[in-house]
Specification:
Layout: E1 6-10, H1 16-31, E2 35-41, H2 47-57, E3 63-67, H3 76-91, E4 95-99, H4 100-117, E5 122-126, H5 139-151, E6 157-160, H6 163-172, E7 180-182, E8 201-206, H7 215-229, E9 235-238, H8 244-253, E10 260-263, H9 268-272, E11 275-280, H10 289-296, E12 300-304, H11 309-313, E13 320-321, H12 325-337, H13 339-343, H14 349-355, H15 358-373
Helix pairs in contact: 1-15, 7-12
C-alpha cells in the first residue's frame, strides 16, 4: 500500500467549524505529501469564505469543487447527488471523508458505489454534531437515527471530535458496529496572544447567526448585564447567517443600537482584538473551534457547558454557564467588573497546545485512514 493517498473531503456548507476543521486537516495532509481535494456546496458562504478558498486552491492537487447541495432532504437531492457523485468519481479517491450529516451521507453512499466498480475506497464519517443534535423522542430524530444505524453498514470508520459527541451517538444511534475513535479538533500556529485594541468593546460574539449558536441569548444578556453594571455594555457581533435580520431587529427593539455593532465574517484573531471578553452562548455544540481559538489567543471568555466545551475547560470550570440570558448576564457583569481576576480562571495554554494541536489531530486521522483501507 502506498504511503501517499488521494483524499477527498465532502461536506455541505463551507462555513463555521466544519470548514475550519477541513482547512486545518487538508493543510496537514498536503504537508504530509497526500493529494487532497474538496467537494462542497456552492450556495453557502460569502466573500470571507471565497477568500479562504482562494488561499487553498494552489495547494489542493485534487482541486476544490463546488456544486449546489440542499440542506434538507427534498426533490432537488437527486440531481444534486448525481452531480456530486460525478465530481467524486472523477477524482478517483483512496479515501472519501464525509463531514456533517449531508457530507457523511454522500461520502458513504458514493464510496460504496465506487467500490462496486473498482478498487477499495475507505469511507469515513465525522458527524461534527450534525443530525446528533436532534431529539431522539421526535419523529424527525427517530428517522435520522434510524438512517444513521442503516448507514453504519456503509461506513469503514467513525471519527468523533469530542467524547460528548461519541456518547451522544452511543445513546441516540447505538453502539457503532465499526471501528471508531475520538480525535479532538486541533489548532496549528495560533497559540500566540492577541492584543486587545484601545477603546475596544466589552464583549464579542463571533459565529454563525442562527439560534442554535445563541446570538439571541447574547443580546438579551446585554440588557441585563447593563442594568447590573449601571452602564451600557458595548458589544460587537461578527458573523452571517439567515437569522441575522432577526438579531438586528432584536437589538433595535431592546434599544441597544448605540452600543452594539454588527460586522461581517472575518478571521477570528482579527475579531478578538475588538473586545475584552469573548462570549460563546451556544445551545448545542460538538467541539467548537472558536473556543479553542479564543483560549489559544490568550483571551478571556464565557461559554455554555454544552457539547464538548467542558472537555476543553474541565468540568466545573467557573467560566461555564447554562445557555440562559440571566446566567450569562450575571457572569458577564462579574467578569467585566474585574477582568484580571476573571482571566486567571482560564485553562493553561501549554496544556491546551498538547491536547489540541493540529499535528496530533492530523496524525490520528491519518492512522484511521490506513486502518479503514485495510478493512
Amino acid at each position: 500500500m502506498a504511503d501517499t493517498l488521494r483524499i477527498v473531503h465532502c461536506f455541505r456548507s463551507p462555513v463555521g467549524g466544519i470548514f475550519r476543521h477541513v482547512r486545518d486537516l487538508t493543510e496537514a495532509q498536503v504537508a504530509a505529501g497526500h493529494a487532497v481535494g474538496i467537494v462542497c456546496d456552492s450556495t453557502t458562504g460569502g466573500d470571507f469564505e471565497e477568500h479562504l478558498f482562494e488561499q487553498m486552491k494552489g495547494k489542493m492537487a485534487l482541486g476544490i469543487h463546488r456544486t449546489p447541495m440542499q440542506r434538507h432532504v427534498g426533490p432537488g437531492d437527486l440531481a444534486s447527488a448525481w452531480r456530486t457523485f460525478g465530481l467524486i468519481k472523477g477524482l478517483r479517491p483512496d479515501v472519501l471523508h464525509g463531514h456533517g450529516a449531508k457530507g457523511g451521507a454522500y461520502a458513504r453512499l458514493f464510496g460504496s458505489l465506487l467500490r462496486v466498480s473498482r478498487s477499495r475506497v475507505a469511507r469515513l464519517y465525522s458527524p461534527h454534531g450534525g443530525s446528533l443534535h436532534y431529539d431522539e423522542t421526535t419523529a424527525t430524530g427517530k428517522l435520522f437515527f434510524a438512517l444513521e444505524r442503516f448507514m453504519a453498514r456503509f461506513t469503514d470508520y467513525l471519527l468523533f471530535v469530542s467524547d460528548y459527541e461519541r456518547q451522544t451517538y452511543h445513546r441516540k444511534v447505538g453502539e457503532p458496529p465499526i471501528p471508531n475513535n475520538l480525535v479532538y479538533n486541533g489548532l496549528s500556529a495560533e497559540f500566540e496572544p492577541v492584543r486587545t485594541e484601545q477603546n475596544a468593546a466589552d464583549v464579542l460574539y463571533i459565529g454563525m447567526m442562527r439560534d442554535l449558536k445563541g446570538p439571541d441569548i447574547f443580546i438579551d444578556a446585554l440588557v441585563l448585564a447593563g442594568t447590573r453594571l449601571g452602564r451600557p455594555v458595548k458589544a460587537v457581533m461578527v458573523g452571517d447567517g439567515d437569522d441575522l435580520p432577526r438579531y438586528h431587529a432584536q437589538v433595535k427593539r431592546l434599544g441597544l443600537e448605540g452600543h452594539t455593532r454588527f460586522l461581517p465574517p472575518m478571521p477570528a484573531r482579527k475579531a478578538f482584538a475588538l473586545a475584552e471578553l469573548v462570549i460563546v452562548p451556544s445551545r448545542a455544540e460538538a467541539m467548537p473551534y472558536i473556543v479553542l481559538e479564543t483560549l489559544a489567543a490568550g483571551k478571556s471568555m464565557i461559554a455554555t457547558a454544552v457539547g464538548g466545551i467542558p472537555e476543553i475547560f474541565g468540568t466545573g470550570s467557573p467560566a461555564l454557564i447554562r445557555p440562559d440570558p440571566r446566567e450569562l448576564s450575571n457572569k458577564m457583569s462579574a467578569a467585566l467588573a474585574d477582568l484580571n481576576a476573571y482571566g486567571s480562571l482560564m485553562p493553561d495554554s501549554a496544556d491546551l497546545k498538547t491536547r489540541f494541536g493540529a499535528d496530533v489531530m492530523a496524525a490520528a486521522i491519518e492512522t484511521a485512514y490506513f486502518a479503514a483501507l485495510k478493512r
